[in-house]
Structures are given as structure tokens and as C-alpha cells.
Amino acid sequence: MGLFKKRINDFPTPYTVSAAATKGGPETKLSMLVLGAGNIVHKQVIKGLLYLAAEVAYIVFMITNGFHCLAMLPSLGWVEQEEVWNEALQIYEYTKGDNSILILLYGVATILLTLFMVWFWRECVKSAYAAECLDKEGRHVNTFKEDLHTLLHENIQRLLMTPSLIFIFGFTVLPLIFMICMAFTNYSKIDNHLLLFEWVGLENFRTLFDSSSILGSTFWSVLGWTLIWAFFATFTNYIFGMILAIVINREGTRFKGFWRFCFVLSCAVPSFVSLLIMRTMLQPNGAVNVLLRSLGLIASDASLPFFTDPLWARVTVIVINIWVGVPYTLLQLTGVLQNIPGELYEAARVDGANPVQIFMKITLPYMLFITTPYLISTFTGNVNNFNIIYLLSGGDPVTDLASTAGKTDLLVTWLYKLTIDKQYYNIGAVIGILTFIILAIGALLTYRNSKSYKDEEAF
Amino acid sequence: MKETRVASAKRKRFINNTIVHIVLAILAVVWVFPILWVVLTSFRAEKGSYVSTFFPKSYTLANYARLFTDTTILNFPKMFGNTLFIAICSCILSTFYVLSVSYCLSRIKFKMRKPYMNMAMVLGLFPGFMSMVAVYFILKALGLSEGGLIRLALILCYSGGAGLGFQIAKGFFDTVPRAIDEAALIDGCTRWQIFYKITLPLSKPVIIYTVLTSFIGPWVDFIFAKVICRANADYYTVAIGLWRMLEKEYIDSWYTCFAAGAVLISIPIAALFMFLQRFYVDGMSGAVKG
User: What is the pTM of this model?
Assistant: First the structure.
């Protein structure tokens, strides 16, 4: 959570860009324009040439593609795709229009690449200055081979982190920035802006916050349900899982391994399989209703409205979430429970505390202390819990036909429906951003107020 | 006086224990019931998704046989092959990412360490598939969204963000005593040698944990696979296949096969899970027990 703390530089180095600019020799200053020049002068020919090659590659890319991509970014293209009647072939042909989505993607990628080059440039200047200083002081300047060897020792983090960083940037950061950009455009099926769209500023946010529009009112009700769901899903699982763990762990319980096995069996089945099974079981003619009918608990033609009545549906998904989630909680909490110092319990028993008091005064505070980070991540996970809603109820029942969300839709499933089914990409992106903001604020606040953050050594 | 008190305490404890066991038994039935039901359904001879009895009237193995022989509409063997291939590749890649990233974050103090961890936390707060559509466009721009390259696209998707899930492995590496590293450094080991000759052999539980979790990923995810495969049925993974069996047009004839497929997937995953559970607890508690 060091986001807001003033950053202290733990890694002081004499070789900085400003030092290079003020104290560096002419070859170092030249390497601000021609990357690698300083290295070539100071015995690091291969390294210098590689730097230079990277610079040339970047410049070539920018001239052939990059500048065009950047120039198109503010307008996102304007040439419409048109139908032209081809007399000779007797068919309609389509002229190639601008495709805003590609322009946006390439633009964002170019910006990321440019930022990377800025960082790269700084590294090059620093490296040139370091080579100059070492050479002038008569110290050893690493050859290229020795540089490669440092990758196995001093700089091993570069070797090990780079591949995964490349992928994280390519498949997580770039798409995310790209999606965030979409929130400020009118890229949606509304008014047919699927090929060509433009920047609209905060227009989408305004639509979503305006509770008089359909999207706006849906947003508030979905948000409310999401928070209710996340709260209940997290705490029912937590409490129930903890009670179960305690009951299985207590002295008098026999066959501990067997009970644990029964519960853990259900999390060995992939969750999407068990959720699909649950959904079919809870259909009007599914196994549960059949069982209830044959037991005579409900009339032979009646069925319980598991996913057709809003309240029933909401309770059903929370209850099924208990079924899905408790085994995991059980697994995680069992270890923590066994770690509670036994003397605490003994002392409490000697003082005549009853089980409820022991639970409230010892077990619960201890568990809360240890598992606050776990609770926060579960809460976040539940706000973003796509699988359970999408596979179980699919967001149904939809009571208001005009709205795009059903009664059990969470923000994420609504996001999915809006982007994949309805192709309202811009609104979907706005919802994603808002989800993030809510989660970030919630996580920060709870984490900062939790005991495990304030007082790390308490237990 | 005293004896009666002891006796009543004993009786009370007996009653308590009985109640606890009865409650546990009821709960265990609730938890096992759906699993039992799907196993029964997979052996059921009557077709269709809606039945009037809980237990099948007659049992058969035809559902399993059909899964592997009837490949006209839903080619289950092919899906199985696809998923196995994708799972193995992405498992190797993500294990490498996770282990190398967590080792660096745990052992080496470098400038990007804190920023990286903060970035991972912030990225973790975004809805996972918010960027899914964008990922699809990127894959399309790279030319990976058609034909056999879809498999590569899926591998990249599943392993791409693996470097962000370093928490458990890092927590484990933190518990491997630093004194060993220092001793090795004095003996002239490079960091790389320490990593693969000392830390990795000491970390079997967490390696197995990482391998298994990343191997299971492609078997159970169907959202990414669905968005990236779209209509290319040749490259479907098992998860999409099972999902499609429950669609309206297939459910009546394929429902029992769905149950059979679900059982088939669950068996290896359940076996892995049982195996993993031991390491799961170990992985949480550290390399060297104190």
C-alpha cells in the first residue's frame, strides 16, 4: 500500500541522466542523440551497436507506421466504408474505410512503445555515462560477455522478470488501457458506431450516472445488488466455513478425515461443472423439484421458483455460493485454527468462559486478525464473481424488459452482456472502470483500518 | 454428589457429540448429493434432461461410449486433445513465470520490486475479463484469431498474466532460510545457481502447487475460450463443449453425455486435487518446519 507514501530512493547510484548531462564528456552527450555512441567509444562495441540498432528500428517504425498511428489517434478516423456499384462485375464493392478500433489499438500500442523507448533512452544514457566514468578512472569496463554473465548473478531479476513482464504488458496492461480508452468513445451499437467512432469525453459516465435514463437506473440497482451479494457471499462463507472447521476440529468429533473428505470432494469437481449441474437440478422440472414432489412436500404439478422469482433467485445464488465456497474456506481456515495457541483456550476455560464467549473473544478476533487480507481478496473476488452468476442464473429473472440486466446480474455479468451480447463496448468499459474504483476504494479503506495493517506484531 | 455431576457431564458430552455428528452427516449428504447425482446420471439409460425419478431406472455405459464415438456434432475427443495440449503448454509457461517472478520478488532487492508488486495489486482489482474483448482485438491484429493459431492464442491468454499471481509462491520462498543463500554466495555460487540448485529443489510443494493450478486452468475456464474461439468448433476446449451440450438444441439428446463428460473431467482434477491438498497446506506453512 505504498502508493501514497513519498518514495525514498533505496538504490542510489552516481550514474544518473542529469549527471550525464552535466558532467558527461562529449561522447556521453552524443549518445543522448545517437544511442550507444558512448559505449562504442569506451570498449563496449557490441552493447553500443545493439543500442544503436534498437534506436534505428524505433525510428524506422515511427516513420513507416508510428507517426501515422499517432496522427490518427485524436480523430480515430473519418473515412466511411462505402458501397460502390461495380458496373463491370455487376456487384457492390466495399471501399476500405477507416477502422477506428484498429486505429485506437495501434495508437495505444505506439504510445506504450514510445514510453518504453523513453525509459530505454534513459538506460542507454546512464550506461554510456557509467562506461565513461569507469574508463576514465581506469577501472574495468565490462565486456559484452561479462555483461551477459551479470544476468546470471547481479542482474538476475532482468533475466527472470523480463519474459513475464513482456507478456503482462502485452496481454494485461495494453488491453486494459485500450479498454479504458473505449470508455471515452462512442464505440457501440447505438447509432451504429461499430466501425467508425470518436472521442466523446465523459458522455458515457454522464449517461450511466443519470438515474432517469434506463441505463442509469439499471446501473444503480445492479450496483446495489452487487454490493449486497458480495457482502453476503463473503461473510456467509466465512462464518459458515469457520463454524464447520471448528466443529470438525473439536475434540469430541470422530472421523475428522472423513468429514473433511466429504466437503472437499465438492471442490475437487471443477466449479463450472458443479454450477451447471446445480442449474439443471434447480430448473422447474429439475432433480430438486422432482425430489420434493415425490416426497410429497409440494404439489405434484408445482415447482419452487428458484430462478424465476427475483427474491428466490437472489437467495438461491447466495445459498449455492455457500455450497461452492465453504469447502475452500474450510481448507484455508483449518490450518489457521490449528495455529491458535492452546494456552489462550485453557486460560479462558479456567476463568469459566462458555463456548460462545471463547468464540467471540478468542477465536473470532484471532481469525479476523490473521485473515483480513484473505477476506479482502474474497470480497474483491465476489464482486468480480462472474462464473457463479453467469452459469447459475444467467442474471435471470429479467423483470423489466426495457433494461439490459436481470435481477441477479452483477456488474461483471452485466458488463459481459453489454459487451458481448449487446455490443455496447463503451458502456461496458465504463462499468469496468467503476467496478475498479469501487474495489480500489474499498480495499484501501478496509486494509488501512484493519488491525493487521496497523499493528503487525500484535499476535 | 460428585459422581452424579461427572455422569451428567458425560451424558451432556455424549448428547453434544451425537448432535454434532448428526448435523455433520446431514451437511455431508447435502454436499455430496449433487456429485452423486451427476455420477448416477452419467450411467442413466433413459435420455433427456428431465426425469421423474431420482435414481435411474436402468444403467448403461453407452453415454461414455457415445462421447468418444459420436463426433459429428460435438467432437469430444478432439476437444479433449485441444485442451490437453493447451493445458500442458500454458502450464510450462506459467510455472516458469510464476517461479521466476516470485523468486526475484522474494530474494532480490531491486528498484522495480515495490512498483511491480503495487502494479500487480492494482491490476488484480480490475474485472478479469474486462480486457477480454481487447485481448481478442490484439490477437486478431497479430493474426492469431483464425485456424490452428487459436491454440497458440489460448496458450498466450492463459499464461500471459501468470506473472501477476506470485503471492503464494513468493510467500513460500520467503520461508526458505536466507542463511542457505548466504552460505552459497560465500562458496561462490551465482544467483542463478542458487535459484535452480538450492531454492527450487527445496520448493517442491509450491512447484507442484503451481504446476497443478496452471494445468487445471484451461480445463475449467470457458469464458476466454468462448470469446476467442467464437465459431471455430475445431478448436473448442472441453469446457465449451460441455457448455454447448446444455444448450437448448442439444440438451435433450446430450444431457446424459454431459454428465459423463463432467465425470471424466472431474476424475483427473479430483485426483490432482486430493494429491495437491497435502501440498496446499504445506505450501501455506513453509519449507522448513519450526
Answer: 0.81
